[in-house]
Amino acid sequence: MSDNALLSLIIFLPTIGALGLMCFNAKAEEAMRNFALVITAATFVLTLLLLGRFDPAQAGVQLKVLAEWIPNWNVNYFLGVDGISLPLVLLTSLISLLGMLASWSVKKQIRGYLILYLLLETGMLGVFLALDFFLFYVFWEVMLLPMYFLIGIWGGPRREYAAIKFFLYTLAGSVLMLIALLMFYFGSGADRTFDLIRLAEIGQGRVPGVQFSEFVQITAFILLFIGFAIKVPVFPFHTWLPDAHVEAPTPISMILAGVLLKMGGYGILRVAFPICPVGAQYAAYCLVLLGVISILYGAFAAMAQTDFKRLVAYSSVSHMGYVLLGIAVWKLADPNLGTTAGAEYWESGINAAMFQMLAHGISSAGMFFMVGVIYDRVHHRDLNQFGGLMGLMPEYGGLAVGIFFAGLGLPGLCGFIGEVFSVLSAWNYSPLLAILSAAGVILTAGYILWAVQRVYLGPEYKGPHREDITPMNGREASVGYVLLAFAIILGVYPESMFGLMRETNKQLVVNMTEGYENSKKNAPKVSAVTPDLGEGVLFDPIAIPANPGAGALAPAIRGR
Amino acid sequence: MDLETYQSTLARLLTTAWLLPLCGFVIEIFAGWWSNRRSKAAAYLAVFCIATGFVCSLTALLYWGEKTEWAAFAGHAAGHGEAGAEHAAGAHDGAHANAAHHAAAGAAAHATPAYPLAVSGTHYVLVQFGRLRVAIDYYIDSLTLAMFTMVTLIASLIHVFAIGYMGDELTDDHEDHEVHTSHGHLHRPGRYYRFFAYLSLFSFSMLGLVLAGNVFLVFVFWELVGICSYFLIGFYTERRSACLAANKAFIMNRVGDFGFLIGLMILWTWFGTFQFAERTEDGQTTPGLFQMLRTPEGEILRLNTQSGQRVVLVDSHGDPLLDPTTREPKTVPYLLLVAAGMGIFAGCIGKSAQFPLQTWLPDAMEGPTPVSALVHSATMVAAGVYLTGRFYPMFMPEVLLAIAYVGCITLFLAATIAVVATDIKRVLAYSTISQLGYMMLGLGVGAWGAGLFHLITHAFFKSLMFLCSGAVIYGCHHVQEMPRMGGLRRKMPITAYTMLVGVIAICGLAIPWPTVFGEKIAFSGYHSKDAIVAAALTFAQLNPKHILLFLLPLVGAGITAFYMFRLWFYTFAGTPRDEHVYEHAHEAPAVMWIPLVVLSLFAAFCAVGGEEGPLFKLLLNSEPAGVAAGRESAVPGGISIPGHAAVAANHVAAGVDALIVAGLGAFLAYVFYGVRWLNPAEVKNQFAGLHRFLIEKWRFDELYDVMFTRPVHIIARWCTWIDRTVFDGLLHAAARLALDVARWDRKFDEGVVDGLVNKVGDLTFATGRSFRVIQTGRLRQYVMFIVVGVIVIGVAGILFVTQLRAG
What we know:
The structure holds two protein chains of two kinds. The termini of chain A are far apart. Chain A has one domain. Chain A is globular and about 75 Å long. In chain A, strand 3 and strand 4 (339-341) form a beta hairpin. Chain A contains 22 helices and four strands. By secondary structure, chain A is mainly alpha-helical. Chain B has 28 helices and eleven strands. In chain B, strand 1 (119-129) and strand 2 form a beta hairpin. In chain B, helix 11 packs parallel to helix 15 and helix 19 packs across helix 24 (644-674). The chains are: A mainly alpha, B mainly alpha. Chains A and B meet through helix 11, helix 13, helix 16, helix 17 and helix 18 of A and strand 1, strand 3, helix 8, helix 9 and strand 7 of B.
């Protein structure tokens, strides 16, 4: 199979499957489910083929597919993968497969559900593989509609409210993105382009004659950032998330937490950062601060919940805060020259943020699945009306505790690496924010252990439908085991993912630092705004001691 | 080549010992599938794994000793020549001097003919970004070897003990008498295999912690032992108290880990590595943390600058490291080093249950007794002390002082609570906290060797005592309250007298005269505690401001003797207090008392020879450079740390003081509880207020509840409230506004726009109607209209064009 066909097939196989579902008899529900399962499984296998063809030693975009789409506006069908998108593509196809396995709990209007589910998968994969901004935008919107219906039709009692809220929030983000898109398009010189790679080169000042001005970069960055921050979600744009999660059916919650939230982080890394290095640097402090607030705020809010699913939803806000924290720890050594201080710490931050996205994709999907399993049996989610499930469903209890501990950030499980390295890389940027973010470890332990205690431990089950509590069936257990296995693999051998993304992230850091320096060279008078919290000299690892010189050092050495 | 064999042999032996329990865990946890609940197969597997681990560790220790020509045992003065005056036994071998301290740990880097005493290496790289790198490293020196041997030995014995102790779980229907459900007592399947699976996982994590060659890896295993402790404390998951205790233990440990993480951040950012030892790769040597901070002599290079005091980083030869771009020497602010040290030590405070995070350990006694013996006395809680010792070169004098005070406060506080506790396991728990305080104090006042010496001896006698208490609890059918015991020595003599060995050891009682083979007749605790008290006395003499650091441990020694003998007399001596309990009491089976006997032998004799004995010398071999010489404060009023020579001079005086105090304490206990001349109840009534204060554990639980737990819950509720009212409120207001606008829009549409359109329509209609007049049907009239129209348009067009041209 040529590369060309492979990428397109990955994106459109689910769509083909959705068309295929039309041919089924409406009564043949089981057959349709199995068919959809085969389609998602095949997509997963295709992404594994993609992994096989990917060369991790190469930093740039690989396996490119380029075809004209709307030549008048220079819109192209442009696909490709690099170290940032590939892991997320793998995650998407995996979570889609597992989500499909969990979809047996959905009982009404199966055909419609499956069709929308598969269309959603196309949208998600398209977003991660598109390299043309217009195409990216189209896929972004394609993803939105199925999600709206999946929550609004198959959701819980307040599904319509939640669906509208989700839709409006996301749409608001899309509109902001659209403005930025047009700004780039019309600012990209004579041969206008939506090509993200080309736009990034322009933004980084590597194309002679064309350059986005600082104003454009900063404005566009803020627009894009808000658009993506809604998706992540970042405090204070997060309130759609708990409602959407609580109302969505289990598999949709898995997708929502496992994949959709990652699009925010991906968008920042793919679009906002490379095209607007100046904007990114301008807003870096704000980004890190919002990340830290999200970590703490999400953890506190999770602690106060009595709805199990809402607790997990807030834990997502908290965990995704580490992503933003890691992405944005870009510190300048000299604001006038635009040189970067401790680039490797920023690089480790970006790597950690990427890893955190993958880890959260596994652990939060797992947590939502675990909530779904018990909800399917007892039809309530009140944390104060559980207890004793470890004794009643030992296998389920064991798997659930394992996955919740992955969320807690226990070493040896996936949550640890991403969290700890984004926090470690933050000190170089701002000790104060780093300390605050580290405080998250206490709160996370608090709310997760408390939830585990209320649900799984204790002498007996306290809620209704005691008689319906049955052990997990094979299908459910397989989802749980696969997720826990991935949690362990990523936790013990993080190189499996770091190896894929390392070169790309390194290149991203180099490109952005150079891009920023270029823009400073071209416009030397404006300096970036970085709040000074008085951490200057003392806490600055790069700052050279005021005047050490050879003379000052000599007595110290002689003295020993 | 030989060197490589030497290094890889050591690494392989210890790695095997480390990984075997993990394999055991993976098999045991699924025992529900391949075995049944009445089978002991999982237990035998666990014992096999850990016992093989012990054999490997011991082999490694002997191999290491043999290859290094027993230099470590012969005399620790090698490498510490400056302190050698009173320890003349040491051979001043240059090669050893080079290899004996942390700084020269890289085996390959120092191709000295003799085998290095410390080796390090890497299993595999975990994470690498640019030059930042974290790997699964190992670091093996005499401390590692001693810890490995101790941990695997004690763990093996405790595993064996647990085979008997956990026997009542070997059933398909276990009745838990402490849990009441709506249908009476709780019935559940036994969880024998799960207990051993957790023990195996714990052994793996603990050994990993000791073997770790970088501080990040220590943190990883730090968390893992924490989670094992969580599982084991909460082993009886149905008991609410057990769940709460498990949560408390884990969360309080996380509070300490918060500090640990801050320390890690500082090291990561300023040193760019977590490694202890230097590493050679592709011919390039990267210094580890200790080499960067200290010269081979253990000195710190300070530098006064305008922005405050800084410390110059050096390479393994003591030359300043230069920044690759600026060619300036790399420096670190002194304050940050203090902060990093405090941060790491905060982690140790949590793990070792030191003040102010001590409250979790007594509650942790909810776990089965073998767990208390292994995790919560001998190994995991000692990990804090171990790390403090391992990380010693990174601690600045201010941090050491803080460590000393934390230990000092803890040892006193816990000892006072132990005096009033009546639950046999809780007395031992407070005693553990108190003894850990002694170790911290020892490390803090500069007695590195003494602190870790006490770690090892304490591990033996405390695990012995916990197992004895387990045997008592087992024999008395799960009675733990001492007021219901008494006279049990007649029913369980082996337990009683092995326990007595432990009690004498912990109290530090000894017969200074006559001597046997030139040795005082004393058990292990005497030697190690003596060393700490001597160091504390010397420290107090050098720094008269800190006299409390000597007085409190001295008083503590007396209290220790009092409450330990109180425990023994209460339980084993005199007449039975509860006939029912006494009637049914019985000695433990052989599988349980054999470990007791073995442990009592170690508790008595492991420290034989005291500070001239092999154990102490073995440990001292890993002492960081510069500790032996002590440190004179450069500025008056600063902190001076005593060296070995100064401590040795005080040894006899301190020993006599401690012995007298301990003897007094033991005598008092005899008076109260042995012969019962005095009635403790009267004393209790006389000091009712104080007694209540102690029973309530100095009211720390209440304090923390008010200070932390409740505020956290209040903030949590605030956050939810903000979400619901502020953010959603804003959103809903915006939605309402949009609807209102839409409504207005509709009104505008219907009223104004449609009105206008209708008006226009009407007007058009009326105009059309009025035009009907000119629709005459006459052709000539129409031609006339057309002509006029064309002319008008033409003129207008010409005018427009000329205007345009003119403009």
